[in-house]
Design a protein that fits this description.
HlyD family secretion protein, AaeA-lik-b-barrel, MdtA-like_BSH, coiled coil, Elongation Factor Tu (Ef-tu), domain 3, alpha+beta, single chain
């Protein structure tokens, strides 16, 4: 009994053990970017998919119509710009004509004034000439105002024109929405817990299926607070999965969680670990993230997200008596796992 208690105390510091390990992974609730009824589903439950594989299709007809409408609006904007360009050319011609008429009136007025001063022409001719000059000046002002209005109406030339740019952006948005009617796998992964069917209406931003990212998985081990003293990133780890009895895998401590949710407050985004209310409250548990010492392509296929793992962390290294004893006990447990 004394030896057991002594081993328990020593192992907690040098080779901490827990049977509360869980296989974790990145789980996403994939949502469409557009709304509409589903017209086809291209995967089955628990299907392994590659990046870009088609998962399901939202009815594209409303979005095809939106693309066609945007194309028409772009064409109309282009035609409007062409018409405005013609109006601008006409306004420029009117300005040139008005300025030429003004110069002629100005020359005629100067000649009339000279004749009046020499007594050759009557004063009334001078007044008529001055009136013609004022009319010509007014026509120049009106033509220049029309030209300014035509320039403002036309805006920048070519693709830089605001109306053209707005129509192009609307078309690009419609084309993008049409692409989004085909929902594809974002990465290598697995579709699971599938309950999507043809005819079901899906909404943009609302989850439609569950996707497990196949690019990463790890083990989350809940260690008691008094086991964390010597656990550090880089420590070697022994792993036993219930799904693979008799086999010991190796891993490495990636990190130790910095916070937990005690359950006394609202959801905080932290791992929840509600304290017990017994006389002697047990130590609280913090998550330790462990990476498997092998490539993801070699990850055991029968070990799935949520699977149980038994963990021994060799906090004092693997070349000491405490580690040897822990390894032996872990090996014995792996053999016993055939029975339960």
């Amino acid at each position: 009994m004394v030896a057991f208690v002594a081993w328990y105390a020593v192992s907690d510091k040098l080779a901490p053990y827990t049977d509360r390990g869980t296989v974790s992974g990145y789980i996403a609730r994939l949502a469409p970017r557009v709304s509409g009824p589903v017209i086809s589903v291209h995967v089955e439950d628990n299907t392994i998919v590659q990046e870009g594989d088609l998962l399901y299709v939202v009815d594209p007809r409303p979005f095809e119509i939106a693309v066609q409408q945007a194309e028409v609006e772009l064409e109309q904007a282009t035609q409007s710009i062409n018409a405005s360009s013609a109006a601008l050319i006409a306004a420029q011609a009117k300005v040139s004509q008005a300025r030429a008429k003004f110069e002629n009136a100005k020359t005629s007025n100067a000649r009339t004034q000279s004749l009046v001063q020499r007594g050759v022409a009557a004063r009334k001719q001078e007044e008529a000439s001055r009136a013609e000059l004022e009319v010509a000046q007014a026509e120049v002002d009106a033509a220049e105002a029309d030209l300014s209005s035509a320039e403002a109406e036309l805006g920048a030339a070519g693709a830089s024109n605001p109306r053209i740019k707005a129509a192009r952006l609307k078309l690009e948005r419609a084309q993008l929405d049409l692409i989004y009617t085909r929902v594809v796998a974002p990465t290598l992964g697995v579709v699971t817990n599938l309950d999507l069917a043809v005819g079901q209406y899906v909404s943009a931003g609302s989850a439609a299926l569950t996707f497990i990212d196949g690019r990463g998985a790890w083990i989350t081990a809940d260690m008691r607070e008094n086991q964390l003293a010597n656990i550090e990133p880089g420590n070697k780890v022994g792993l036993l999965f219930d799904a693979l009895p008799g086999q010991i895998f190796t891993g490495t401590v990636h990190s130790v969680g910095w916070g937990i949710d005690t359950g006394r407050t609202a959801s905080s985004g932290l791992v929840q670990n509600e304290p017990e209310t017994r006389w002697f409250e047990p130590a609280r548990r913090f998550p330790v993230r462990i990476e498997l010492d092998r490539a993801l392509s070699e990850w055991p296929r029968t070990v799935r997200v949520g699977a149980k793992a038994t963990v021994v962390v060799y906090a004092a290294g693997e070349s000491n008596p405490s580690a040897w004893i822990a390894m032996a006990l872990h090996r014995a447990q792996s053999l016993l796992s055939y029975l339960y």
